[in-house]
Amino acid sequence: MFGWLRKPASETQVTHGQRLWLYVFAAITMLLLVTPTLIVIPMSFSESQYLEFPPKNWSTRWYEHYFSSPEWMLASVTSLKAAFLTMLVATPIGVVAAYGLHASKVKFIRIAFVLLITPMMVPVVLVAIGAFYAYVKLGILYTLTGLVLAHTILALPLVLIVTGSALKSYDMNQELAARSLGAPRWKAFLTITLPQIRFAVVTSALLSFLTSFDEVVIAMFISGGDNPTLTRNMFNALRDQIDPTIASISTIMIVVTSIMMVLAQVFGRSKADK
User: Fold this and answer.
1) Which domains are present in the chain?
2) Distant-in-sequence, close-in-space partners of 179: CB < 8 Å, separation ≥ 6
3) For 173-217, what is each residue's pLDDT tens digit?
4) Number of neighbouring beta carbons within 10 Å of residue 256
5) Which end of the chain has fewer CB atoms < 10 Å from its terminal CB, N or C?
6) Which of 163, 151, 224 is nearest to 194 (CA)?
7) Entry pTM
8) Are 154 and 216 in contact (CB under 8 A)?
């Protein structure tokens, strides 16, 4: 144990012992962030009609209620569809935009970058209000198309930032060498550049999916009717009747999110190492 503390933690010869305070701080921070989330899991197995922690009696009745409810199933399908379509739309657009900004020699390119990440800088409720009135005029309120468009606006800045960061550490001379040998720009990008930033692209796709899947503010304004989202129904259920169904759905969302993060790490790393 003490030998490990004396070992260097990095190339700067800083030892693990000197970094011990940082490890303790990180552990406490993680504990404070994770504990409220983990409390939801045992609450979802409560037999009581109300949320209680710790549960006095254990039961899976609220999971059965969730899976047997047409209303919850409709909302779940809508959320998964919207998240998947948002990922398919936002990821390629964001990657191409990040590549264009990185490769461009235009003098005022930073202005374009600021404009593209504007949805991240303004309050989400403003985006929701704007989308609501625009969709009323366009006739796409309470539709899956409108939901995907709004969530794509929120996801694009994340894709742009993550992919742009990866491109900054990428040597563009490799792509230029391929183009000098006669490869078209699009082919050089797909065969040379894209494989080397694949992990960032996979991460961006995951963030796009989760941005849509977990989003609630915009969904409260523009989803409903035949296309309610899971988060919208959860919010309404918390307002009208608090029962452990919310905890069971939250637990399922935690599991789905965790699995996707693990798959993104495994898939992205394995492809990046090839």
Assistant:
1) 2-34 (no CATH), 70-273 (1.10.3720.10)
2) 185, 188
3) 777 777 777 777 778 878 877 888 888 888 888 889 988 988 888
4) 15
5) N
6) 163
7) 0.81
8) no
